[in-house]
């Protein structure tokens, strides 16, 4: 199937503000304000339970961190630039794809970025460093914009007019060079590259029919409890002299 190419000549300054981008920005800003106003009393438990780290996700089984980290920001400029990127690049994509498709794409980019971070942290035995912020998902949106609207002129670094496809290549190249130089920069370039790679493959290979479904965490948890109960029952029967039935 040939890749669809779109032209976008509108402006997010005067165009509509679709609900997917609106609610994603509202959630991110809302969590930021809650942490900002709550100070250390809120920020410390938020960092422990919501930010992504290998220790939290693997050792303490807080696998939900792969999802929650992308909604957590502590720095004003961090949340500001991420939300500007989501607004500027996300609006035309949502208007083209529709809200449900765009939101799922955004979440999958964030999840892919988080998984990449976990893999690299495990390979480098970095258990403690937390990762937070929407940048991985934003880079996926940025790359999708460059693929869908390659000839649209944007202001790179808010200064230099350039076609989107070239600007995206430069942004990704910068992230790759920084990552190759050092993983310890204070910025999770691995998350940026992971989100960018997923965003590219998603659009390039026409993955986004998005008949995919986000996993139902509640169902998975109930299945885990059921399996745990089965094992406990089997242990109980063995201790009391009976092999016990095989539970399927």
List keywords for this structure.
248 residues; globular; mainly alpha; two-stranded antiparallel sheet
What does this structure look like?
The chain folds into 2 domains: 19-214, Rhomboid-like fold (Up-down Bundle), CATH 1.20.1540.10; 217-248. The radius of gyration is 21 Å and the shape is globular. α1 packs across α6 (99-123) and α6 (99-123) crosses α7 (135-148). It has helices spanning 19-38, 40-49, 54-59, 65-68, 76-97, 99-123, 135-148, 164-181, 189-204, 217-239, and strands at residues 153-156, 160-163. It has a two-stranded antiparallel sheet. With 248 residues, it is mainly α.
Short description:
The chain has helices at residues 19-38, 40-49, 54-59, 65-68, 76-97, 99-123, 135-148, 164-181, 189-204, 217-239; strands at 153-156, 160-163.
Secondary structure: helix percent: 55-70%
Look at the structure and name the CATH superfamily of the largest domain.
Rhomboid-like
Overall geometric form: globular
What is the strand content?
A: under 5%
CATH architecture annotation of the largest domain:
Up-down Bundle
Spell out the blueprint of helices and strands:
Blueprint: H1 19-38, H2 40-49, H3 54-59, H4 65-68, H5 76-97, H6 99-123, H7 135-148, E1 153-156, E2 160-163, H8 164-181, H9 189-204, H10 217-239
Antiparallel strand pairs: 1-2
């Amino acid at each position: 199937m040939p890749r669809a190419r779109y032209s976008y000549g509108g402006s997010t300054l005067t165009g509509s503000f679709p609900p997917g981008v609106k609610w994603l920005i509202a959630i991110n800003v809302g969590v930021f304000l809650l942490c900002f106003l709550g100070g250390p009393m809120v920020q410390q438990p938020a960092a422990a339970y919501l930010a992504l780290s290998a220790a939290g996700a693997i050792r303490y089984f807080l696998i939900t961190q792969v999802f929650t980290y992308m909604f957590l920001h502590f720095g004003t400029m961090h949340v500001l630039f991420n939300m500007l990127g989501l607004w500027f690049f996300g609006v035309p994509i949502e208007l083209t794809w529709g809200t449900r498709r765009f939101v799922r794409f955004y979440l999958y980019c964030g999840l892919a970025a988080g998984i990449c971070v976990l893999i690299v942290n495990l390979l480098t035995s970095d258990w403690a460093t937390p990762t937070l912020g929407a940048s991985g998902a934003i880079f996926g949106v940025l790359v999708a914009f460059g693929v869908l609207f390659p000839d649209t002129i944007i202001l790179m670094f808010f200064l230099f007019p350039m076609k989107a496809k070239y600007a995206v290549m430069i942004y990704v190249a910068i992230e790759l060079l920084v990552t190759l130089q050092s993983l310890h920069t204070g910025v999770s370039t691995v998350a940026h590259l992971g989100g960018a790679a997923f965003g590219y493959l998603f659009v390039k290979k026409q993955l986004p029919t998005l008949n995919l479904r986000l996993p139902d965490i509640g169902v998975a948890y109930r299945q885990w409890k059921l399996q745990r109960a089965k094992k406990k029952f089997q242990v109980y029967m063995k201790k009391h002299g009976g092999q016990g039935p095989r539970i399927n």
